[in-house]
Amino acid sequence: QVQLVEHGGGSVQAGGSLKLSCAISGLTFDHHAMYWVRQAPGKGLEWVSLINSITGTTVYEDSVKGRFTISLDYARNTLYLQMDSLQPTDTAMYYCAADQRYRMRWDDLTDFTYRGQGTQVTVSS
Predict the structure, then answer these.
(1) How far is residue 31's CA from residue 57's CA, in Å, rounded to a whole number?
(2) Over 80: is that where the pLDDT of 1 sits?
(3) Considering Cα of 104, then 107, then 110, then 115, what sign does the dihedral take?
(4) Residue range 5-33: average pLDDT?
(5) Strands 119-124 and 10-13
(6) Percent residues over pLDDT 90 in the chain
(7) What is the DSSP string of 31-100?
């Protein structure tokens, strides 16, 4: 059974940092792209970043480039998202997800083959 469990959300002031983690079990993630996506209240799903689990190539949504860093620890079976210089616009529920498809547009969380339950990030001004 595949499980993705996020940790690390919380409340910070603008300019602060958080590091999200996603514990992965039951998944051979070298056949999958690993994602972070987010959804703010009343808004649609926003893709944030992906990492190619074979090549290590990373891609970021424009608004988080230079501020967020995605990484994958194969030994710990854990996906990370280091978030620096956080802004109130980053406030959302953050989800990790896995899918064999590599793309940067996702309309709904259920489109992913595997996804976690989410962790809330709140950034105050």
Answers:
(1) 14
(2) yes
(3) positive
(4) 93
(5) parallel
(6) 89
(7) GSEEEEEEE-TTS-EEEEEEEETTT--EEE-GGGTTTEEEEEETTTTEEEEEE-S--GGG-EEEEEEEES
Distance between terminal CA atoms of the chain? 41
Amino acid, single-letter form, for residue 36: W
Question: Sign of the C-alpha dihedral, residues 46, 88, 61, 93?
Answer: negative
What are the tokens at 32?
A: 């999958």
Range 12-16 contact pairs with CB under 8 angstroms and sequence separation of 24 or more: 12/86, 12/121, 12/122, 12/123, 12/124, 13/123, 13/124, 13/125, 14/86, 14/87, 14/88, 14/123, 14/124, 14/125, 15/85, 15/86, 16/86, 16/123
CA–CA separation, 17 and 19 (whole Å): 7
